[in-house]
Fold this sequence. Notes:
globular, disordered N terminus
Amino acid sequence: xxxxxxxxxxxxxxxxxxxxxxxxxxxxxxxxxxxxxxxxxxxxxxxxxxxxxxxxxxxxxxxxxxxxxxxxxxxxxxxxxxxxxxxxxxxxxxxxxxxxxxxxxxxxxxxxxxxxxxxxxxxxxxxxxxxxxxxxxxxxxxxxxxxxxxxxxxxxxxxxxxxxxxxxxxxxxxxxxxxxxxxxxxxxxxxxxxxxxxxxxxxxxxxxxxxxxxxxxxxxxxxxxxxxxxxxxxxxxxxxxxxxxxxxxxxxxxxxxxxxxxxxxxxxxxxxxxxxxxxxxxxxxxxxxxxxx
Length: 293
């Protein structure tokens, strides 16, 4: 098969200095129909692609298209990149911390606590090896922050679910808020993210007698305290029976939803998950609501 040779036309190149490459340097291919001489359908480089070594890319492009250097179809131009505001030191720190937390949750969900070293976390996050220590100090502190982030997400998702249902959180009784939060928590484990999986994995890692995950223990205590406070509020607003011990009820509630979450991770039947959530909701009402007059 004979491939028609495209018509060459001179290309005027804007002079480009031979200094260090710039972020706003691009290569633009001017090959007619982007058809190279070797019969490939497209030029090996995008019509516009940012480059780090612009001269090498130009040479590669010419060579791959079998073009004489006097008739390059690819040329380098410098374009004005949009001016982006410089990030503050606080913003850069927040971004790196978010990247590390995401990486930590992913690795913990995949390999467990012991398999999540600070080195592997920094590698997954694309940061320097010393950055996890710089931001969090110890692995235990990082684990604690991963747990806290997952717990905060439950609150965020609960508020979002209420908004979708056109319910104002300020109009709910404490018992209604308990039931809504529990339902959201369990629903999140129907299609869990790395955060949710990591939370259950970290909880299980506290079972061995010689485990030393103080950060996870502290995160658990934070959850207990939150449930206990909400139950106590329900006793004040009359939605929760007065003979319930808030601290004990919080432990029972946390154990219930943690156990259900662990089961939902391994049982992907959506119908089963929905019916389980409905049953838990009914149980909460029966256990916590004041007896009918």
